[in-house]
Amino acid sequence: MIAKTLETEPEEEVRPNHFCKAINNKLSALDSMRQGHVQNAMQAMGIFETRCPNGEPLIHVPDYDADREGFKTTLRKLAEDFRVMGL
């Protein structure tokens, strides 16, 4: 899917840094999100206020192994929020 979207051959090895900065950042954010590293994903998308004044994360993502449904629900909600924001 990504190879088709980015117009590369499926067997071609490409890395995020092979693309312009905007695509690189989106791919990095996608990979961070896939791993549950939401703060890293937000920073890759240019959102640098990822913590509350008390140091707590703005968004809590449940640990996948402890709460798979909560993890998936949270990431789906984030994806929709980011889509609405145009990210």
Low-confidence stretches: none
> How many separate structural domains?
1
Number of strands: 0
Distance between the termini: 19 Å
Bin the strand percentage: under 5%
SSE run: HHHH
The major sheet is characterized as:
none
- Broad shape: globular
Query: Structural class of the secondary structure composition?
Result: mainly alpha
Quaternary structure annotation: single chain
Supply Rg.
Answer: 14 Å
What's the rounded overall pLDDT mean? 79
Helical residue percent?
40-55%
How many individual helices?
Answer: 4
Name the descriptors:
globular, mainly alpha, 87 residues
What does this protein structure show overall?
It is a single chain. With 87 residues, the chain is mainly alpha-helical. It has one domain (21-85). 49% of the residues lie in helices and 0% in strands. It contains 4 helices and no strands. Helix 2 packs antiparallel against helix 3 (38-44).
Characterize this entry briefly:
This protein has 87 residues and is mainly alpha-helical.
